[in-house]
Protein backbone atom coordinates (compact mmCIF):
# COMPACT_ATOMS: atom_id res chain seq x y z
CA UNK A 1 0.00 0.00 0.00
CA UNK A 2 1.17 3.51 -0.75
CA UNK A 3 2.35 5.64 2.13
CA UNK A 4 0.78 9.10 2.55
CA UNK A 5 2.86 12.03 1.25
CA UNK A 6 5.66 12.99 3.63
CA UNK A 7 5.04 10.11 6.06
CA UNK A 8 7.53 7.31 6.66
CA UNK A 9 7.65 5.17 9.82
CA UNK A 10 10.42 6.50 12.04
CA UNK A 11 13.23 4.50 13.62
CA UNK A 12 11.39 4.57 16.95
CA UNK A 13 8.33 3.03 15.29
CA UNK A 14 10.44 0.20 13.86
CA UNK A 15 12.26 -0.34 17.17
CA UNK A 16 9.13 -0.48 19.32
CA UNK A 17 7.33 -2.58 16.71
CA UNK A 18 10.06 -5.23 16.93
CA UNK A 19 9.69 -5.68 20.69
CA UNK A 20 8.34 -9.15 21.60
CA UNK A 21 4.80 -9.39 22.94
CA UNK A 22 3.06 -12.04 25.00
CA UNK A 23 -0.34 -12.57 26.58
CA UNK A 24 -1.08 -13.49 30.19
CA UNK A 25 -0.08 -17.10 29.50
CA UNK A 26 3.24 -15.82 28.10
CA UNK A 27 2.33 -17.05 24.61
CA UNK A 28 3.80 -14.95 21.76
CA UNK A 29 1.43 -12.40 20.24
CA UNK A 30 1.88 -10.97 16.71
CA UNK A 31 2.92 -7.32 16.63
CA UNK A 32 0.24 -6.33 14.12
CA UNK A 33 -2.16 -3.69 15.44
CA UNK A 34 -5.32 -5.54 16.52
CA UNK A 35 -6.92 -3.77 19.52
CA UNK A 36 -10.12 -5.80 19.17
CA UNK A 37 -8.32 -9.11 19.84
CA UNK A 38 -8.05 -10.29 23.42
CA UNK A 39 -4.49 -11.58 23.06
CA UNK A 40 -3.26 -8.20 21.83
CA UNK A 41 -5.07 -6.40 24.66
CA UNK A 42 -3.43 -8.70 27.18
CA UNK A 43 -0.02 -8.02 25.60
CA UNK A 44 -0.45 -4.25 26.08
CA UNK A 45 -1.70 -4.78 29.64
CA UNK A 46 1.36 -6.89 30.31
CA UNK A 47 3.58 -4.06 29.06
CA UNK A 48 1.80 -1.69 31.45
CA UNK A 49 2.13 -4.27 34.25
CA UNK A 50 5.91 -4.13 33.93
CA UNK A 51 5.71 -0.64 35.43
CA UNK A 52 3.74 -2.09 38.34
CA UNK A 53 6.49 -4.66 38.80
CA UNK A 54 9.05 -1.86 38.80
CA UNK A 55 7.03 -0.01 41.43
CA UNK A 56 6.86 -3.09 43.62
CA UNK A 57 10.59 -3.69 43.37
CA UNK A 58 11.29 -0.03 44.16
CA UNK A 59 9.10 -0.11 47.25
CA UNK A 60 10.69 -3.38 48.43
CA UNK A 61 14.17 -1.96 47.92
CA UNK A 62 13.30 1.26 49.76
CA UNK A 63 11.68 -0.68 52.61
CA UNK A 64 14.68 -3.00 53.00
CA UNK A 65 17.08 -0.08 52.91
CA UNK A 66 15.13 1.91 55.51
CA UNK A 67 14.74 -1.12 57.81
CA UNK A 68 18.45 -1.77 57.58
CA UNK A 69 19.17 1.90 58.27
CA UNK A 70 16.87 2.06 61.29
CA UNK A 71 17.61 -1.30 62.85
CA UNK A 72 21.16 -2.16 61.92
CA UNK A 73 23.07 1.07 62.39
CA UNK A 74 25.58 1.06 65.31
CA UNK A 75 24.64 3.10 68.39
CA UNK A 76 26.22 6.48 68.70
CA UNK A 77 28.69 6.91 71.58
CA UNK A 78 27.38 9.07 74.40
CA UNK A 79 28.26 12.69 74.08
CA UNK A 80 29.15 12.42 70.40
CA UNK A 81 28.42 15.68 68.67
CA UNK A 82 30.20 15.29 65.35
CA UNK A 83 28.15 13.90 62.46
CA UNK A 84 28.89 10.35 61.37
CA UNK A 85 31.30 9.95 58.48
CA UNK A 86 29.77 10.01 55.00
CA UNK A 87 26.98 12.35 56.00
CA UNK A 88 27.94 14.94 53.42
CA UNK A 89 27.94 12.34 50.66
CA UNK A 90 24.44 11.25 51.66
CA UNK A 91 23.11 14.81 51.54
CA UNK A 92 24.75 15.56 48.22
CA UNK A 93 23.53 12.31 46.70
CA UNK A 94 19.99 13.27 47.70
CA UNK A 95 20.41 16.75 46.24
CA UNK A 96 21.86 15.33 43.01
CA UNK A 97 18.96 12.90 42.69
CA UNK A 98 16.44 15.72 43.15
CA UNK A 99 18.22 17.86 40.55
CA UNK A 100 18.09 14.92 38.12
CA UNK A 101 14.38 14.69 38.91
CA UNK A 102 13.97 18.40 38.07
CA UNK A 103 15.74 17.78 34.74
CA UNK A 104 13.32 14.93 34.05
CA UNK A 105 10.42 17.24 34.82
CA UNK A 106 11.70 19.69 32.19
CA UNK A 107 11.85 16.83 29.70
CA UNK A 108 8.30 15.93 30.71
CA UNK A 109 6.99 19.42 29.96
CA UNK A 110 8.60 19.23 26.52
CA UNK A 111 7.16 15.77 25.88
CA UNK A 112 3.71 16.86 27.02
CA UNK A 113 3.85 19.79 24.61
CA UNK A 114 5.01 17.57 21.72
CA UNK A 115 2.22 15.08 22.38
CA UNK A 116 -0.33 17.88 22.47
CA UNK A 117 1.02 19.30 19.19
CA UNK A 118 0.73 15.90 17.51
CA UNK A 119 -2.85 15.39 18.66
CA UNK A 120 -3.72 18.95 17.60
CA UNK A 121 -2.34 18.18 14.14
CA UNK A 122 -4.53 15.08 14.03
CA UNK A 123 -7.60 17.11 15.02
CA UNK A 124 -6.83 19.80 12.42
CA UNK A 125 -6.51 17.17 9.70
CA UNK A 126 -9.84 15.63 10.70
CA UNK A 127 -11.53 19.04 10.67
CA UNK A 128 -10.12 19.84 7.22
CA UNK A 129 -11.25 16.46 5.90
CA UNK A 130 -14.71 17.08 7.35
CA UNK A 131 -14.80 20.47 5.60
CA UNK A 132 -13.89 18.83 2.26
CA UNK A 133 -16.48 16.08 2.60
CA UNK A 134 -19.18 18.54 3.66
CA UNK A 135 -18.29 20.84 0.77
CA UNK A 136 -18.65 17.95 -1.72
CA UNK A 137 -22.07 16.98 -0.38
CA UNK A 138 -23.29 20.57 -0.14
CA UNK A 139 -22.07 21.55 -3.60
CA UNK A 140 -23.47 18.46 -5.29
CA UNK A 141 -26.88 18.68 -3.63
CA UNK A 142 -27.11 22.45 -4.15
CA UNK A 143 -26.38 21.99 -7.86
CA UNK A 144 -28.98 19.22 -8.11
CA UNK A 145 -31.56 21.47 -6.46
CA UNK A 146 -30.72 24.36 -8.78
CA UNK A 147 -31.08 22.12 -11.83
CA UNK A 148 -34.38 20.79 -10.52
CA UNK A 149 -35.76 24.32 -10.17
CA UNK A 150 -34.58 25.17 -13.67
CA UNK A 151 -36.30 22.09 -15.10
CA UNK A 152 -39.57 22.76 -13.28
CA UNK A 153 -39.73 26.49 -14.05
CA UNK A 154 -37.64 27.84 -16.94
CA UNK A 155 -37.74 24.74 -19.16
CA UNK A 156 -41.45 24.27 -18.55
CA UNK A 157 -42.07 27.92 -19.44
CA UNK A 158 -39.89 27.55 -22.54
CA UNK A 159 -41.84 24.52 -23.72
CA UNK A 160 -45.08 26.44 -23.31
CA UNK A 161 -43.74 29.40 -25.29
CA UNK A 162 -42.47 27.12 -28.09
CA UNK A 163 -45.58 24.93 -28.21
CA UNK A 164 -46.30 25.99 -31.82
CA UNK A 165 -42.99 24.60 -33.11
CA UNK A 166 -42.73 20.87 -32.50
CA UNK A 167 -39.01 20.61 -33.32
CA UNK A 168 -38.19 23.42 -30.89
CA UNK A 169 -40.24 21.78 -28.16
CA UNK A 170 -38.34 18.54 -28.84
CA UNK A 171 -35.04 20.40 -28.39
CA UNK A 172 -36.27 21.88 -25.09
CA UNK A 173 -37.32 18.43 -23.90
CA UNK A 174 -33.91 17.09 -24.90
CA UNK A 175 -32.34 19.75 -22.67
CA UNK A 176 -34.69 18.65 -19.90
CA UNK A 177 -33.56 15.03 -20.21
CA UNK A 178 -29.90 16.06 -20.20
CA UNK A 179 -30.47 18.21 -17.09
CA UNK A 180 -32.09 15.24 -15.38
CA UNK A 181 -29.07 13.10 -16.30
CA UNK A 182 -26.73 15.71 -14.79
CA UNK A 183 -28.82 15.89 -11.62
CA UNK A 184 -28.85 12.09 -11.29
CA UNK A 185 -25.08 11.84 -11.72
CA UNK A 186 -24.32 14.72 -9.36
CA UNK A 187 -26.57 13.27 -6.69
CA UNK A 188 -24.37 10.17 -6.71
CA UNK A 189 -21.28 12.29 -6.06
CA UNK A 190 -22.50 13.20 -2.56
CA UNK A 191 -21.05 9.93 -1.27
CA UNK A 192 -20.63 11.05 2.36
CA UNK A 193 -24.30 11.99 2.82
CA UNK A 194 -25.92 9.85 5.50
CA UNK A 195 -22.64 8.26 6.63
CA UNK A 196 -22.77 7.74 10.44
CA UNK A 197 -19.06 8.46 10.92
CA UNK A 198 -18.38 12.18 11.33
CA UNK A 199 -14.75 13.42 11.25
CA UNK A 200 -15.96 16.51 13.09
CA UNK A 201 -17.26 14.42 15.99
CA UNK A 202 -14.07 12.36 16.05
CA UNK A 203 -11.97 15.55 16.13
CA UNK A 204 -14.07 16.96 18.98
CA UNK A 205 -13.75 13.72 20.98
CA UNK A 206 -9.99 13.60 20.41
CA UNK A 207 -9.60 17.25 21.45
CA UNK A 208 -11.74 16.69 24.56
CA UNK A 209 -9.66 13.71 25.72
CA UNK A 210 -6.39 15.47 24.88
CA UNK A 211 -7.38 18.56 26.85
CA UNK A 212 -7.82 16.54 30.05
CA UNK A 213 -4.74 14.40 29.35
CA UNK A 214 -2.60 17.51 28.90
CA UNK A 215 -4.01 19.08 32.07
CA UNK A 216 -3.46 15.90 34.10
CA UNK A 217 0.17 15.70 33.04
CA UNK A 218 0.76 19.38 33.77
CA UNK A 219 -0.62 18.91 37.29
CA UNK A 220 1.48 15.78 37.81
CA UNK A 221 4.65 17.51 36.62
CA UNK A 222 3.94 20.54 38.80
CA UNK A 223 3.39 18.24 41.80
CA UNK A 224 6.72 16.51 41.14
CA UNK A 225 8.45 19.88 40.76
CA UNK A 226 7.01 21.19 44.03
CA UNK A 227 8.05 18.02 45.88
CA UNK A 228 11.62 18.32 44.55
CA UNK A 229 11.87 22.04 45.31
CA UNK A 230 10.42 21.82 48.82
CA UNK A 231 12.61 18.81 49.60
CA UNK A 232 15.66 20.81 48.52
CA UNK A 233 14.41 23.68 50.68
CA UNK A 234 14.00 21.34 53.66
CA UNK A 235 17.55 20.07 53.23
CA UNK A 236 18.93 23.60 52.89
CA UNK A 237 17.03 24.86 55.96
CA UNK A 238 17.54 21.55 57.82
CA UNK A 239 13.83 21.55 58.63
CA UNK A 240 12.80 18.16 59.94
CA UNK A 241 9.05 18.64 59.64
CA UNK A 242 9.34 19.79 55.99
CA UNK A 243 11.54 16.82 55.12
CA UNK A 244 9.07 14.42 56.76
CA UNK A 245 6.11 15.89 54.83
CA UNK A 246 8.05 15.78 51.56
CA UNK A 247 9.05 12.18 52.24
CA UNK A 248 5.38 11.20 52.45
CA UNK A 249 4.62 13.21 49.29
CA UNK A 250 7.55 11.55 47.53
CA UNK A 251 5.97 8.14 48.10
CA UNK A 252 2.75 9.38 46.46
CA UNK A 253 4.57 10.90 43.49
CA UNK A 254 6.67 7.74 43.12
CA UNK A 255 3.49 5.68 42.72
CA UNK A 256 2.09 8.20 40.20
CA UNK A 257 5.35 8.22 38.23
CA UNK A 258 5.40 4.44 37.86
CA UNK A 259 1.71 4.42 36.98
CA UNK A 260 2.13 7.03 34.25
CA UNK A 261 5.18 5.12 33.00
CA UNK A 262 3.08 1.99 32.48
CA UNK A 263 0.37 3.93 30.65
CA UNK A 264 2.94 5.66 28.43
CA UNK A 265 4.79 2.43 27.62
CA UNK A 266 1.62 0.56 26.62
CA UNK A 267 0.41 3.51 24.53
CA UNK A 268 3.77 3.90 22.79
CA UNK A 269 3.95 0.20 21.92
CA UNK A 270 0.38 0.14 20.61
CA UNK A 271 0.94 3.34 18.63
CA UNK A 272 4.11 1.93 17.06
CA UNK A 273 2.16 -1.14 15.92
CA UNK A 274 -0.45 1.09 14.34
CA UNK A 275 2.07 3.41 12.69
CA UNK A 276 4.11 0.59 11.18
CA UNK A 277 1.26 -0.21 8.74
CA UNK A 278 -1.70 2.14 9.28
CA UNK A 279 -3.41 1.74 5.89
CA UNK A 280 -4.86 -1.72 6.43
CA UNK A 281 -6.36 -0.98 9.83
CA UNK A 282 -7.71 2.45 8.84
CA UNK A 283 -9.26 1.09 5.64
CA UNK A 284 -10.98 -1.79 7.42
CA UNK A 285 -12.21 0.37 10.29
CA UNK A 286 -13.51 3.12 7.99
CA UNK A 287 -15.31 0.62 5.77
CA UNK A 288 -16.89 -1.00 8.81
CA UNK A 289 -18.03 2.33 10.28
CA UNK A 290 -19.19 4.01 7.06
CA UNK A 291 -20.35 1.16 4.83
CA UNK A 292 -18.68 2.80 1.81
CA UNK A 293 -17.35 0.66 -1.02
CA UNK A 294 -13.71 -0.38 -1.00
CA UNK A 295 -13.17 1.38 -4.35
CA UNK A 296 -13.90 4.80 -2.84
CA UNK A 297 -11.83 4.16 0.30
CA UNK A 298 -8.87 2.76 -1.62
CA UNK A 299 -8.92 5.77 -3.94
CA UNK A 300 -8.68 8.29 -1.11
CA UNK A 301 -6.44 6.41 1.30
CA UNK A 302 -3.97 5.12 -1.28
CA UNK A 303 -4.20 7.77 -4.05
CA UNK A 304 -1.80 6.25 -6.55
CA UNK A 305 -1.70 5.35 -10.21
CA UNK A 306 -2.95 1.82 -9.58
CA UNK A 307 -6.30 3.01 -8.16
CA UNK A 308 -8.76 4.64 -10.56
CA UNK A 309 -11.20 7.37 -9.68
CA UNK A 310 -14.50 5.68 -8.77
CA UNK A 311 -16.41 8.82 -9.79
CA UNK A 312 -14.82 9.16 -13.22
CA UNK A 313 -17.79 7.69 -15.09
CA UNK A 314 -20.26 9.99 -13.36
CA UNK A 315 -18.05 12.99 -14.02
CA UNK A 316 -17.68 12.10 -17.69
CA UNK A 317 -21.43 11.62 -18.17
CA UNK A 318 -22.15 14.90 -16.38
CA UNK A 319 -19.63 16.77 -18.50
CA UNK A 320 -21.10 15.41 -21.73
CA UNK A 321 -24.64 16.19 -20.61
CA UNK A 322 -23.68 19.75 -19.69
CA UNK A 323 -22.04 20.19 -23.11
CA UNK A 324 -25.22 18.88 -24.81
CA UNK A 325 -27.42 21.25 -22.78
CA UNK A 326 -25.18 24.15 -23.70
CA UNK A 327 -25.37 23.26 -27.43
CA UNK A 328 -29.15 22.82 -27.31
CA UNK A 329 -29.70 26.15 -25.55
CA UNK A 330 -27.50 27.93 -28.08
CA UNK A 331 -29.51 26.34 -30.92
CA UNK A 332 -32.79 27.36 -29.29
CA UNK A 333 -31.55 30.90 -28.79
CA UNK A 334 -30.52 31.09 -32.42
CA UNK A 335 -33.73 29.55 -33.82
CA UNK A 336 -36.47 30.43 -31.33
CA UNK A 337 -35.75 33.96 -30.15
CA UNK A 338 -36.32 35.63 -33.56
CA UNK A 339 -39.76 33.97 -33.81
CA UNK A 340 -40.65 33.93 -30.09
CA UNK A 341 -39.12 36.96 -28.34
CA UNK A 342 -40.72 35.90 -25.04
CA UNK A 343 -38.39 32.86 -25.03
CA UNK A 344 -35.40 35.14 -24.36
CA UNK A 345 -36.12 35.44 -20.63
CA UNK A 346 -36.28 31.70 -19.77
CA UNK A 347 -33.31 31.04 -22.08
CA UNK A 348 -31.20 33.69 -20.32
CA UNK A 349 -32.13 32.25 -16.95
CA UNK A 350 -31.24 28.77 -18.16
CA UNK A 351 -27.88 30.01 -19.47
CA UNK A 352 -27.15 31.56 -16.07
CA UNK A 353 -28.10 28.32 -14.29
CA UNK A 354 -25.92 26.37 -16.72
CA UNK A 355 -22.92 28.64 -16.07
CA UNK A 356 -23.31 28.23 -12.30
CA UNK A 357 -23.70 24.47 -12.73
CA UNK A 358 -20.54 24.26 -14.80
CA UNK A 359 -18.64 26.29 -12.19
CA UNK A 360 -19.88 24.01 -9.41
CA UNK A 361 -19.00 21.00 -11.55
CA UNK A 362 -15.37 22.11 -11.89
CA UNK A 363 -15.19 22.70 -8.12
CA UNK A 364 -16.55 19.21 -7.54
CA UNK A 365 -13.93 17.73 -9.85
CA UNK A 366 -11.19 19.42 -7.80
CA UNK A 367 -12.71 18.44 -4.45
CA UNK A 368 -13.33 14.84 -5.48
CA UNK A 369 -9.71 14.31 -6.47
CA UNK A 370 -7.86 12.20 -3.95
CA UNK A 371 -5.04 14.70 -3.38
CA UNK A 372 -6.84 16.81 -0.76
CA UNK A 373 -8.19 14.05 1.48
CA UNK A 374 -5.03 11.98 1.07
CA UNK A 375 -2.99 14.99 2.20
CA UNK A 376 -5.19 15.25 5.32
CA UNK A 377 -4.64 11.55 5.95
CA UNK A 378 -0.88 12.04 5.74
CA UNK A 379 -1.01 15.05 8.08
CA UNK A 380 -3.01 13.06 10.62
CA UNK A 381 -0.51 10.20 10.51
CA UNK A 382 2.47 12.54 10.86
CA UNK A 383 0.90 14.21 13.87
CA UNK A 384 0.04 10.91 15.54
CA UNK A 385 3.06 8.80 14.59
CA UNK A 386 5.80 11.43 14.72
CA UNK A 387 5.03 14.27 17.12
CA UNK A 388 2.67 12.42 19.47
CA UNK A 389 4.86 9.30 19.61
CA UNK A 390 7.99 11.39 20.19
CA UNK A 391 6.21 13.24 22.98
CA UNK A 392 5.19 9.93 24.58
CA UNK A 393 8.79 8.75 24.55
CA UNK A 394 9.92 11.97 26.26
CA UNK A 395 7.17 11.51 28.85
CA UNK A 396 8.36 7.93 29.35
CA UNK A 397 11.92 9.20 29.93
CA UNK A 398 10.57 11.81 32.35
CA UNK A 399 8.70 9.18 34.36
CA UNK A 400 11.78 6.96 34.45
CA UNK A 401 14.03 9.77 35.67
CA UNK A 402 11.48 10.93 38.23
CA UNK A 403 10.95 7.43 39.59
CA UNK A 404 14.70 6.83 39.90
CA UNK A 405 15.31 10.23 41.47
CA UNK A 406 12.49 9.85 44.00
CA UNK A 407 13.59 6.33 44.95
CA UNK A 408 17.13 7.58 45.55
CA UNK A 409 15.85 10.56 47.54
CA UNK A 410 13.60 8.36 49.68
CA UNK A 411 16.62 6.24 50.59
CA UNK A 412 18.78 9.27 51.34
CA UNK A 413 16.33 11.52 53.18
CA UNK A 414 16.21 9.54 56.49
CA UNK A 415 20.02 9.53 56.71
CA UNK A 416 20.14 13.24 55.88
CA UNK A 417 17.38 13.88 58.43
CA UNK A 418 19.45 12.12 61.10
CA UNK A 419 22.32 14.56 60.48
CA UNK A 420 20.24 17.63 61.29
CA UNK A 421 21.28 19.34 64.55
CA UNK A 422 18.86 19.04 67.51
CA UNK A 423 18.41 22.81 67.59
CA UNK A 424 16.46 22.57 64.34
CA UNK A 425 13.19 22.24 66.21
CA UNK A 426 13.76 25.50 68.05
CA UNK A 427 15.47 27.59 65.43
CA UNK A 428 12.44 29.79 65.04
CA UNK A 429 11.51 29.99 68.74
CA UNK A 430 11.46 33.26 70.62
CA UNK A 431 14.57 33.70 72.74
CA UNK A 432 12.50 35.26 75.57
CA UNK A 433 10.05 32.34 75.62
CA UNK A 434 10.39 30.54 79.01
CA UNK A 435 9.44 27.25 77.31
CA UNK A 436 12.44 27.57 75.02
CA UNK A 437 14.95 24.93 76.27
CA UNK A 438 17.86 27.31 75.80
CA UNK A 439 16.12 30.01 77.82
CA UNK A 440 15.15 27.48 80.51
CA UNK A 441 18.77 26.40 80.80
CA UNK A 442 19.90 30.00 81.27
CA UNK A 443 17.17 30.52 83.90
CA UNK A 444 18.38 27.54 85.95
CA UNK A 445 21.98 28.80 85.78
CA UNK A 446 20.81 32.24 86.98
CA UNK A 447 18.98 30.74 89.95
CA UNK A 448 21.96 28.64 90.98
CA UNK A 449 24.21 31.71 90.84
CA UNK A 450 21.87 33.51 93.24
Short recap of the structure:
With 450 residues, this protein is mostly helical. The protein has helices at residues 11-17, 38-72, 87-161, 166-187, 199-237, 240-276, 278-290, 294-302, 312-336, 344-368, 370-418, 437-449. The protein has twelve helices and no strands.
Explain this structure:
With 450 residues, the chain is an all-alpha fold. Helices cover 78% and strands 0% of the residues. It has helices spanning 11-17, 38-72, 87-161, 166-187, 199-237, 240-276, 278-290, 294-302, 312-336, 344-368, 370-418, 437-449. Helix 6 (240-276) runs antiparallel to helix 11. The longest helix is centred in the N-terminal third of the chain and has 75 residues, at 87-161. The protein is elongated, with a radius of gyration of 37 Å. The protein starts with 10 loop residues before the first helix and ends with a helix. Residues 423-431 and 433-437 have low confidence and may be disordered.
Amino acid sequence: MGAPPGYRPSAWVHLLHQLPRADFQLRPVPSGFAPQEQGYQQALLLVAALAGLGLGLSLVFIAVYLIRFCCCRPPEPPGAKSPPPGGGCVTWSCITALLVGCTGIGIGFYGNSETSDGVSQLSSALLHANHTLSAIDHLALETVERLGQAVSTELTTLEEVLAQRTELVAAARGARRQAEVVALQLRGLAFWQGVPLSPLQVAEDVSFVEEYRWLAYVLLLLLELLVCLFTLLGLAKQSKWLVVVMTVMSFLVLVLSWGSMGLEAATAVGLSDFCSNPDTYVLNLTQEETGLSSDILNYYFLCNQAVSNPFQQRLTLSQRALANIHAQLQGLEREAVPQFPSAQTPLSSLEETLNVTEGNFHQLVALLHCRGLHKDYGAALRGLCEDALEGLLFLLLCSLLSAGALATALCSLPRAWALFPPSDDYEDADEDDPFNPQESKRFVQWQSSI
